[in-house]
Target: Ribonuclease P protein subunit p29
Amino acid sequence: QGSEEAKAFVNAFLKRSMPKKTDEAIQDILTRKAVVLEHYSKKKTKPKRKKTKGFTAKQRREMRLFEIEPGQQRYAIFLPLHELWKQYIRDLCHGLKPDAQPHMVQAKLLKADLHGAIVTVTKSKCPSYVGITGIILQEFKHVFKIITKEDKLKVVPKLNSVFSLEIDGFISYIYGSKFQLRASERSAKKFKLKGTIDL
Model:
Protein backbone atom coordinates (compact mmCIF):
# COMPACT_ATOMS: atom_id res chain seq x y z
CA GLN A 1 0.00 0.00 0.00
CA GLY A 2 2.87 2.34 0.80
CA SER A 3 4.45 1.90 -2.64
CA GLU A 4 1.09 2.48 -4.40
CA GLU A 5 0.52 5.71 -2.48
CA ALA A 6 4.03 6.82 -3.27
CA LYS A 7 3.51 6.08 -6.95
CA ALA A 8 0.21 8.00 -7.00
CA PHE A 9 1.83 10.91 -5.19
CA VAL A 10 4.73 11.01 -7.65
CA ASN A 11 2.34 10.88 -10.63
CA ALA A 12 0.24 13.72 -9.23
CA PHE A 13 3.34 15.72 -8.33
CA LEU A 14 4.80 15.35 -11.83
CA LYS A 15 1.52 16.37 -13.48
CA ARG A 16 1.48 19.54 -11.40
CA SER A 17 5.17 20.19 -12.01
CA MET A 18 5.03 19.49 -15.74
CA PRO A 19 1.56 20.59 -16.90
CA LYS A 20 2.59 20.64 -20.56
CA LYS A 21 3.67 16.98 -20.59
CA THR A 22 1.27 14.18 -21.60
CA ASP A 23 0.69 11.13 -19.38
CA GLU A 24 2.76 9.00 -21.78
CA ALA A 25 5.66 11.42 -21.55
CA ILE A 26 5.47 11.42 -17.74
CA GLN A 27 5.47 7.62 -17.69
CA ASP A 28 8.48 7.65 -19.98
CA ILE A 29 10.26 9.98 -17.57
CA LEU A 30 9.41 7.67 -14.62
CA THR A 31 11.21 4.72 -16.29
CA ARG A 32 14.50 6.63 -16.00
CA LYS A 33 16.57 6.82 -12.86
CA ALA A 34 16.78 10.62 -12.76
CA VAL A 35 13.83 13.00 -13.15
CA VAL A 36 14.55 16.60 -14.20
CA LEU A 37 11.65 18.81 -13.29
CA GLU A 38 10.88 21.75 -15.53
CA HIS A 39 10.31 25.12 -13.95
CA TYR A 40 7.87 27.60 -15.46
CA SER A 41 8.48 31.04 -14.02
CA LYS A 42 5.69 33.55 -14.16
CA LYS A 43 6.54 36.69 -16.05
CA LYS A 44 6.80 39.58 -13.67
CA THR A 45 4.87 42.59 -14.85
CA LYS A 46 6.84 45.74 -14.32
CA PRO A 47 4.86 48.46 -12.59
CA LYS A 48 4.17 51.32 -14.97
CA ARG A 49 5.87 54.56 -14.06
CA LYS A 50 3.49 57.36 -13.45
CA LYS A 51 4.30 60.33 -15.62
CA THR A 52 4.43 63.63 -13.83
CA LYS A 53 1.48 65.61 -14.99
CA GLY A 54 2.44 68.94 -16.50
CA PHE A 55 0.70 71.48 -18.65
CA THR A 56 0.66 70.96 -22.40
CA ALA A 57 1.69 73.79 -24.72
CA LYS A 58 -1.98 74.38 -25.56
CA GLN A 59 -2.91 74.62 -21.87
CA ARG A 60 -0.06 77.05 -21.23
CA ARG A 61 -1.30 79.26 -24.06
CA GLU A 62 -4.87 79.11 -22.77
CA MET A 63 -3.74 80.00 -19.25
CA ARG A 64 -1.52 82.78 -20.68
CA LEU A 65 1.35 81.75 -18.43
CA PHE A 66 4.04 83.52 -20.45
CA GLU A 67 2.15 86.71 -21.21
CA ILE A 68 3.22 89.91 -19.47
CA GLU A 69 0.39 92.01 -18.08
CA PRO A 70 -0.06 95.35 -19.91
CA GLY A 71 0.38 97.20 -16.60
CA GLN A 72 3.79 95.53 -16.15
CA GLN A 73 5.06 96.46 -19.61
CA ARG A 74 7.22 99.36 -18.43
CA TYR A 75 10.91 99.80 -19.26
CA ALA A 76 11.77 101.24 -15.83
CA ILE A 77 10.54 98.10 -14.04
CA PHE A 78 13.13 95.96 -15.83
CA LEU A 79 16.20 98.20 -15.41
CA PRO A 80 17.20 96.37 -12.18
CA LEU A 81 17.03 93.12 -14.20
CA HIS A 82 19.48 94.66 -16.69
CA GLU A 83 21.86 95.59 -13.85
CA LEU A 84 21.71 92.01 -12.57
CA TRP A 85 22.42 90.72 -16.09
CA LYS A 86 25.49 92.96 -16.41
CA GLN A 87 26.87 91.65 -13.12
CA TYR A 88 26.13 88.09 -14.25
CA ILE A 89 28.11 88.61 -17.50
CA ARG A 90 31.02 90.24 -15.66
CA ASP A 91 31.21 87.24 -13.34
CA LEU A 92 30.88 84.84 -16.28
CA CYS A 93 33.69 86.54 -18.21
CA HIS A 94 35.91 87.11 -15.17
CA GLY A 95 35.54 90.88 -15.08
CA LEU A 96 35.63 91.76 -18.83
CA LYS A 97 39.13 93.15 -18.52
CA PRO A 98 40.61 95.21 -21.41
CA ASP A 99 43.07 92.41 -22.21
CA ALA A 100 40.27 89.81 -22.48
CA GLN A 101 40.31 87.93 -25.77
CA PRO A 102 37.23 88.89 -27.83
CA HIS A 103 36.58 85.37 -29.15
CA MET A 104 36.55 83.99 -25.60
CA VAL A 105 34.03 86.62 -24.49
CA GLN A 106 31.95 85.95 -27.61
CA ALA A 107 31.94 82.19 -26.91
CA LYS A 108 30.64 82.79 -23.37
CA LEU A 109 27.99 85.26 -24.55
CA LEU A 110 26.69 82.73 -27.10
CA LYS A 111 25.83 80.35 -24.26
CA ALA A 112 24.82 82.97 -21.69
CA ASP A 113 21.27 83.72 -20.59
CA LEU A 114 20.16 86.90 -22.37
CA HIS A 115 17.14 87.76 -20.20
CA GLY A 116 17.87 91.31 -19.06
CA ALA A 117 20.31 92.22 -21.85
CA ILE A 118 19.83 95.46 -23.80
CA VAL A 119 19.96 94.64 -27.50
CA THR A 120 19.53 96.60 -30.71
CA VAL A 121 18.32 95.25 -34.04
CA THR A 122 21.10 96.39 -36.39
CA LYS A 123 20.05 94.51 -39.53
CA SER A 124 16.91 92.80 -40.68
CA LYS A 125 15.25 91.79 -43.93
CA CYS A 126 12.18 93.57 -42.56
CA PRO A 127 13.19 97.27 -42.29
CA SER A 128 10.57 98.04 -39.62
CA TYR A 129 12.57 96.01 -37.07
CA VAL A 130 15.87 97.87 -37.63
CA GLY A 131 16.68 100.26 -34.79
CA ILE A 132 14.52 98.61 -32.13
CA THR A 133 16.40 98.82 -28.83
CA GLY A 134 15.31 97.44 -25.50
CA ILE A 135 15.67 94.89 -22.74
CA ILE A 136 15.09 91.23 -23.57
CA LEU A 137 12.23 90.05 -21.36
CA GLN A 138 11.64 86.64 -22.89
CA GLU A 139 13.57 84.44 -25.27
CA PHE A 140 11.84 81.71 -27.21
CA LYS A 141 13.17 79.41 -29.91
CA HIS A 142 12.31 81.76 -32.78
CA VAL A 143 11.68 85.19 -31.22
CA PHE A 144 12.87 87.71 -28.65
CA LYS A 145 10.34 89.73 -26.66
CA ILE A 146 11.86 93.18 -26.09
CA ILE A 147 10.58 96.12 -23.99
CA THR A 148 11.63 99.49 -25.43
CA LYS A 149 12.21 102.81 -23.64
CA GLU A 150 8.79 103.89 -24.96
CA ASP A 151 7.24 101.07 -22.86
CA LYS A 152 6.27 99.09 -25.94
CA LEU A 153 6.62 95.31 -26.03
CA LYS A 154 8.07 94.22 -29.36
CA VAL A 155 8.23 90.65 -30.64
CA VAL A 156 11.24 90.40 -32.95
CA PRO A 157 11.90 87.19 -34.92
CA LYS A 158 15.43 85.83 -34.79
CA LEU A 159 15.33 84.67 -38.40
CA ASN A 160 16.86 87.16 -40.85
CA SER A 161 17.86 89.59 -38.07
CA VAL A 162 21.17 90.71 -36.57
CA PHE A 163 21.23 91.95 -32.98
CA SER A 164 23.98 93.83 -31.15
CA LEU A 165 24.55 94.04 -27.43
CA GLU A 166 27.10 96.16 -25.58
CA ILE A 167 28.58 95.70 -22.13
CA ASP A 168 31.56 97.59 -20.69
CA GLY A 169 32.67 98.70 -24.14
CA PHE A 170 32.52 95.21 -25.64
CA ILE A 171 30.07 94.95 -28.53
CA SER A 172 28.83 91.54 -29.60
CA TYR A 173 26.69 90.66 -32.60
CA ILE A 174 24.07 87.92 -32.59
CA TYR A 175 23.08 86.44 -35.93
CA GLY A 176 19.53 85.34 -35.25
CA SER A 177 19.40 82.80 -38.08
CA LYS A 178 22.19 80.84 -36.33
CA PHE A 179 20.64 81.42 -32.92
CA GLN A 180 17.26 79.71 -33.25
CA LEU A 181 17.39 77.70 -30.05
CA ARG A 182 15.80 77.89 -26.65
CA ALA A 183 18.02 79.34 -23.93
CA SER A 184 18.23 75.93 -22.20
CA GLU A 185 19.28 74.19 -25.45
CA ARG A 186 21.80 76.89 -26.36
CA SER A 187 23.81 76.41 -23.17
CA ALA A 188 24.66 72.83 -24.25
CA LYS A 189 25.28 73.55 -27.96
CA LYS A 190 28.74 73.82 -29.45
CA PHE A 191 28.93 76.85 -31.73
CA LYS A 192 31.37 77.04 -34.62
CA LEU A 193 33.35 80.27 -34.61
CA LYS A 194 33.93 80.08 -38.35
CA GLY A 195 31.24 79.93 -40.96
CA THR A 196 29.10 81.97 -43.27
CA ILE A 197 27.73 85.16 -41.78
CA ASP A 198 24.51 86.03 -43.49
CA LEU A 199 21.01 87.20 -42.69
User: Anything to note?
Assistant: The chain has a mean pLDDT of 81. The helical segments are 2-17, 23-30, 57-63, 79-92, 102-111, 183-186. The CA atoms of residues 18 and 38 lie 6 Å apart. The longest helix spans residues 2-17.
